[in-house]
Amino acid sequence: MTSRTSVAAVPSVPRKVLTEGSGVNKSIAAIEYAVRGELVLRAEALAKQLPSVDLPFDKIVYCNIGNPQSVGQSPITFVRQVLAGVTCPSLLQPESGNVFPSDVVKRVTDVLAASHGVGAYSESKGIRFIRERVANALQARDDGVPANPDNIYLTNGASEAVKTILSMLVRDHNDGVLIPIPQYPLYSAAMTAFGGTQVGYYLDEENGWSLNMDELETRLSDARAKGITVRAIVIINPGNPTGQVLSRTNMEDVVAFCEREKLVILADEVYQKNVYIPEKPFISFKKVTHEMGADVELASFHSVSKGVMGECGLRGGYMEVVNMDRYIQELIYKVLSVSLCSNIIGQVAIDLMMTPPQPGEPSYELYNKEVDEIYGALKRKAIAMSDGLNTFEGVTCNRSEGAMYLFPRITIPPAAVKAAAARGMASADVLYCIEMLEATGICVVPGSGFLQKDGTYHFRTTFLPPEKEIRNVITSMRRFHEQFMAKYS
Amino acid sequence: MTSRTSVAAVPSVPRKVLTEGSGVNKSIAAIEYAVRGELVLRAEALAKQLPSVDLPFDKIVYCNIGNPQSVGQSPITFVRQVLAGVTCPSLLQPESGNVFPSDVVKRVTDVLAASHGVGAYSESKGIRFIRERVANALQARDDGVPANPDNIYLTNGASEAVKTILSMLVRDHNDGVLIPIPQYPLYSAAMTAFGGTQVGYYLDEENGWSLNMDELETRLSDARAKGITVRAIVIINPGNPTGQVLSRTNMEDVVAFCEREKLVILADEVYQKNVYIPEKPFISFKKVTHEMGADVELASFHSVSKGVMGECGLRGGYMEVVNMDRYIQELIYKVLSVSLCSNIIGQVAIDLMMTPPQPGEPSYELYNKEVDEIYGALKRKAIAMSDGLNTFEGVTCNRSEGAMYLFPRITIPPAAVKAAAARGMASADVLYCIEMLEATGICVVPGSGFLQKDGTYHFRTTFLPPEKEIRNVITSMRRFHEQFMAKYS
Fold first, then answer.
1. pTM score
2. Of A3, B14, B105, B317, which sits most exposed with the smallest number of CB within 10 A?
3. How many domains would you assign to chain B?
């Protein structure tokens, strides 16, 4: 009734339309997103003080977000050359002095021939030529399981695809989606925004964050007993923030469960190239469902932000849907068409990620050298950091089998729990992370931002800082941890 | 109840979760977006047939969407050089043979120094350095009216910004937003998706699509009488699809109205550089509200997709908010942070649009030559096309004072109205546009897709095809129009 009452408002008492509380959509207001939350804002404030104020550290080390190039990872030469070429085709002219290798020129020419360039809207689903190439690459990845370009939607990062499909799945607050705990907060944020019900299932920390079928069964029947219509399950594989990689058997159990219970599988597979243990290779949910002949609806999400490219700023992503109703696919098209299309450079980056230089091509050697360096460093840093954390008193940390994160469990003394409560913090790990930031400049995210078992405390840290810095990060974390334990014991 | 009943489902009777009707969110299903709708899908189908099937035209002429580079407009050299440079900084090395002018190198170096490059997520609001430069440019545009970088949000095109603010404004179906008729369907689509109420106000076709204050007053009180809480008004200036430019007096009336009635002003100003008549220069709503000292909340949207750059595929946009509650600004940040940030190349493009080369800089001359060519051609094509359409029997077309579109009114014979109804078409102008497409290959959008006065018929066409083609477009349209009138008379 804002408007009607405000007609009578005295001009000298200005009132706003958009205000906290009753003046704004409550679902939007309820969104939480810890990865860019309190800790980060505090870190940015400290970063501004650094030049003037005397702080116990000389820079902020951002371990709060999987943003490799912000902490020193270099982009891959081939990728940037092709993107520069499609952006400024005059660079391909001889008078520009042949700055690019011939395979880069070929890739640029092919994209430009099959599109109106990076400055024109494409089809709402993305440039068809690129979707066809993505389909071919997926077919190769999945040992011949057929892929159809019509089932591929190119989006601004994977986030846009996830939000699109969830907005269609959630009809009202009685609709639920199974979401892992801990989870990546995009899922909780989107469910909150769309007014649906999050049905949490706990990953088994004691068993390397594995996915336990009894747990799924229990959470599903509990939710149904409460009158919730569970429509889908989110599975993040490799896990974020937990870093576990699912085994084929585990995936088959999940698929059978989803087919039996009629749940859409939302497979967040953006870390499929970030797997660090040979005994557990990445397998796509699409391959498993296909080979099982399962009648289950599936959406798989991927992105150029992760993997070894780490091109977060390009916002390139895609969603492949399997076994979706034709009407639903037309509806996805319609929803995406309201934003016209995803950014074209991100679309091209998806093509480069899915189809890298091939043996014999001029860029092949350098490309592989760069990829191997990045991958090797990620693997070494993952191990160094989990090994380091496991030496801290009262800290246990599962090894990262994949992704870019560790999610160590910390023991927090009762005095610290009290102190956090007294400061009105959501959880004692917020206090832990704030004090870590203020003592060391290292910015991590409290476990409570990803959800966790009551009474347990964690934080999520990336292992992305440069190799030469990782040792110092671990040392500073250890020194802080000891001080924190001493202070509150 | 899908899930619960499906537990009992016989495996041999596969059922899907996401289905038409009760199986999908009904607000999302109700979205309509004509610009990428039925006509375009038909056009794409015809384009596929062209090589094999004998059709009365040799190509599709896409006049359905403001996508200049898809119909031959060239990108601006300076813009693409800077974007290529930030994408592939090695091009700045001497060994790459100084391919870029020195001011391009300077722009690239400055952006890279102030960011982590195009491959890293930026702050959720966008790179601060760019927001500061945008603020300076806005201050210059508005003759010194202060602009604050903290009030600027860089987004993936303007669409993302519009959807973000509407999602916060609409609390439930009783909340309404005043939206022009005809309108750009992003607004109706977003209102439908968020479950709010569109309160249409008619632009006055007889008076050059002007905005009539009595009409606003009437629509507002009618809506309130129905129990609708009207929270905001959308104003598209220059207009889309109507092309009118608001006069200062008209804007002042609107601002006073919004202040009195406590309505947020959503100012779609993406065509601010597309004004073709000297007597009506573009004036920003921010400047008018500031100079009136009005206490009104305002959000202004802009984009790199229009203007003379026409860089639709880059998806660069921004929103500047004025007089917004601090909490609301933090909430906008939180909503955007769930998608992490907008694509960085689009962010850089916004900087280039707002701060072009300056006199004395090496790129200045070529930049202005290219801009003048594009602008001059747009202006000539706008006039040629409205003049042409006005010679058609039973067609009246207001001149385009701005933007990229014409919205001619057509007289449709009763027989055609019957035929359209018999084919279950939403409006007789759908039949008109489909038959135009099939006869000429010219793809325009039915007026019904933008809403219009009952019993009136229109279509929206761009005037973007190359100058040498415009004559043919007009000739083909006329020939079709005569055939259509003859066929149904």
1. 0.94
2. B14
3. 2
